[in-house]
Design a protein that fits this description.
By secondary structure, the protein is an alpha/beta fold. 39% of the residues lie in helices and 18% in strands. The chain is built from ten helices and eleven strands. The N and C termini lie far apart (74 Å).
């Protein structure tokens, strides 16, 4: 009996175990509340078998080897770093979300972090702003603002652009907008909006009496008037629907990237009152 037990243990150690079988590998950039909320949305919407790997817990080479060896039916990248790693592995369909500036080399689809520009233009119409100042880095936000410009023309809104190529240029570009705009549009562009330049937006707002419409409710406590933010859980659900579609036979080639379908609008009523702006926007 002892000999048989020894042979059994030896056999288990020598014969490799089969690779873990699952449908979706979620590759998450790091442990972060927003990412985890989006992943919960995927799991709520998609009933497939899922494995989640957080990139910050592994070396990049380990992750790319894991993808190649385990060969999931679909890879979902959460965040820019995860997308960069997943993009190096070909032959497996790739979806992404929570990536600020996605530019995959292979064919991929996903849910963007940027809201459709028309959502912001509706707010500017609501608060009566016709000349809207935007500071941006063309390398980061040029394509997005080109879309915004086309929609603005149809809405009768004049977007007044100021280009920056480093964060230190932002305060000066804001100063150049004095007397020329009715509102500022703060976009999620890390060159135009940085810790060093954020205060300049709200100093401009106070001195010029114009509202700042921003992309995160974090800025409302600093003096922002209106914030349009994304619903991370719903982004996950939205991507979960795309994942289900891929797993049931839809080709990645037949999918296109989508903007977030749900927007969360919050207002700073004190700022709106001070600026004498009345609107029907939800607070």
């Amino acid at each position: 009996m002892r000999i048989l037990r020894s042979l059994l243990i030896a056999t288990i150690l020598i014969v490799p175990l089969p690779a873990m079988a699952y449908d979706i590998l979620i590759l998450q950039s790091l442990h972060e509340k927003g990412y985890e909320e989006a992943v919960r949305g995927i799991k709520r919407e998609c009933q497939a078998s899922i494995r989640t790997v957080v990139l910050s817990d592994y070396a990049e080479t380990d992750v790319t080897r894991l993808i190649r060896e385990e060969h999931p039916r679909l890879v979902v990248a959460v965040g820019d770093r995860a997308l960069a790693v997943a993009d190096k592995v070909r032959g497996i369909p790739l979806l992404y979300m929570m990536a600020l500036n996605p530019k995959p080399r292979q064919k991929a689809a996903g849910v963007a972090m940027l809201l459709d520009p028309s959502r912001y233009l509706t707010v500017f119409e609501e608060i009566g702003a016709r000349r809207v100042g935007v500071v941006y880095d063309p390398a980061r936000s040029g394509a997005y603002l080109k879309r915004a410009q086309q929609a603005a023309r149809r809405s009768g809104i004049d977007l007044v652009f100021r280009e920056v190529h480093s964060p230190k240029e932002t305060p000066g570009m804001l100063e150049s907008l004095r007397g020329k705009v009715d509102a500022l549009w703060m976009i999620p562009d890390v060159t135009a909006v940085s810790p060093a330049s954020t205060e300049a937006y709200f100093l401009f707002s106070q001195s010029q009496g114009v509202p700042v419409v921003t992309f995160s409710d974090v800025y409302l406590s600093m003096g922002g008037a209106v914030a349009l933010s994304i619903d991370r859980f719903d982004i996950g659900k939205q991507l979960g629907e795309m994942a289900e579609s891929v797993l049931t036979g839809t080709s990645i080639d037949d999918l296109s990237s989508q903007p977030p379908r749900r927007v969360l609008i919050k207002t700073n009523d004190g700022v709106l009152r001070r600026l004498k702006i009345s609107s029907g926007l939800g607070g």
